[in-house]
Amino acid sequence: MDAAAEASPAPRDDAAVDARPPADAGPFDAAPLPIVCGSPPCATALVTTLGVETVDRGEEGFCALLHDGTVACWGAGGAGQLGRGNTQDSVTPARVVGLSEVAVLDHTCALDKSGAAYCWGTGPYLQNDAAATTKELVPVKLPIPPATNIATGMSAACAAFENGIHCWGLNASGQIAELDNASSLTAFPPRAMAVPPGAPVRDLVVAEAAFVVREDGVTLSWGAGPLIGRVSSLFPDPYPGPLALGGISSLDVANDNACAVAGAIGYCWGAVVSDPAGIPVSKTDRALPEAVMTPEPIVQIATTRTLRAPVNDVFEDQYGRPILQPPRWCATAASGDVYCWGYNASGQAGDGTKSYAYKAVKVVGLPGPAAQVKTTPGTTCALLTTGKVHCWGSNYYGQLGSGQPKVSSLAPREVVLP
Question: Using CA atoms, how far apart are residues 104 and 237, in angstroms rounded to an integer?
Fold first, then answer.
């Protein structure tokens, strides 16, 4: 079945506010605003880092692809995810050791112009004949053929080659093979995925599920449900199938949460959403994409994973249930404005408060329009059309990249790019 021909899922009652362009708006161009570097240093792409949640808060960091083809990272460094040869956090961005002529950047993996793959930090990096997770403090070259795209999660990764999609690493969620007691603990070397033929691959994403986004907007998914975003009789489902949403122009996945843009509307699915009191907004995980409310048409969206958040160093409540930090989201509008909603204890929603954002609020204080926004649980960063990066929210690990330690900010601060 052609996913692009399927009707979009009906929005939830609380999302059924007019998030569509006006009827007289004419054709809508879903492309983000272009980046024009006026005064170097400039960034051309922005990503978040990866790490082990309860050990090194590896997701509390950012990397930027710079105008000269190098990569600079800042924030949490406990998993080596800053690529500097150590495990120290950093309040100031610095270039990843040894990378140049980078063409593709995904978390802590990069492809250079020749298609060679380099990764750093903690992940499935195929070192010493091991497909399992290793910690690499500086970039290592992966022993794979030249690739056109690459995506990495915390324990599995995929790459696009001329002969198709190959994935490797741990099969904990069925991202690589059928799942059984043995395969769930198996570290697989690169293995061809049964991805059906179609339009060229625009994007790859790997988390608890894997996604292939084609140039025509058709998206295929496989792995753990409900993250695969479609109905399946298998749990998990190791066979790529069309997502229950067509025409996707932007996709972001963070471990157990996913969001996409289709027709200038945001859709999200995956893990259950809870408010600050721990009460689920929805009674079950969202198995299918559900429309979200934004004040204007959007071109890009970002989400975060659900975290176990200790209170006074305790990870469970009095009933033995895990204490969870609710997810949060941000989106870039067609106008270049940025909107955020969800968890906001550090001011990461950008509205100048620390109040939970039950609806999308406009980020205040950005000096210009944004081309892209990225989120971690504690911090938000926006890549502006000038190539400058501005961040706000928590700075506990140096996520603001401003050169100042610990001091959080309710207003966007410019990142000191090298």
Answer: 28
**Contact partners, residue 46, CB within 8 Å, separation at least 6:** 62, 63, 64, 65, 372, 374, 381, 383, 389
Helix and strand counts by DSSP (H, E) for the chain: 1, 30
By the 8 A CB rule, do 382 and 372 touch?
Answer: yes
DSSP 261-320: EETTEEEEEESPPB-TTS-BSSSS-EEEEEE---SS-EEEEEE---EE--BTTB-B-TTS
Q: What is the CA radius of gyration of the chain?
A: 20
**What whole-number distance in Å separates Cα of residue 239 and Cα of residue 23?**
39
CA 237 to chain centre: 21
Compute the distance between CA of residue 159 and CA of residue 381 in angstroms, rounded to an integer: 26
pLDDT band for 33, please (50, 70, 90 cuts): very high
Q: Residue type at 79?
A: A
Question: What gap in Å lies between CA 258 and CA 300, rounded to an integer?
Answer: 13
Contact between 221 and 269 under an 8 Å Cβ cutoff? The reply is no
CATH no. for 3-414? 2.130.10.30
Contact 89, 379 (CB under 8 A): no
Residue 25 has pLDDT above 70, yes or no: no
State the DSSP code for 398.
Answer: S
Question: What DSSP line would sit under 62-129, residue for residue?
Answer: EEEEETTS-EEEEE--TTSTT-SSS---EEEEEEPTT--SEEEEETTEEEETT--EEEEEEE----TT
Strand partners, 71: 65
What pTM did the predictor assign?
0.87
* Beta bridge partner(s), residue 64: 46, 72
Distances in Å between the Cα of 89 and the Cα atoms of 45, 106, 125, 282 are 21, 20, 22, 36
Closest CA to 392 of 351, 359, 355, 334: 351
Q: What is the pLDDT of residues 207-226, one digit of tens each?
A: 999 999 999 999 999 998 88
For residue 3, the SS3 value is: helix
Q: Which of 181, 173, 178 is nearest to 156 (CA)?
A: 173
Answer yes or no: are the C-beta atoms of 223 and 165 closer than 8 Å.
no
Q: Predicted confidence band at 12 (pLDDT cuts at 50, 70, 90)?
A: very low
Residues in the chain: 418
**Pairing mode of beta strands 187-192, 164-170:** antiparallel
Whether 191 and 174 have beta carbons less than 8 Å apart is answered as no
Residue 246 is given by DSSP the state: -
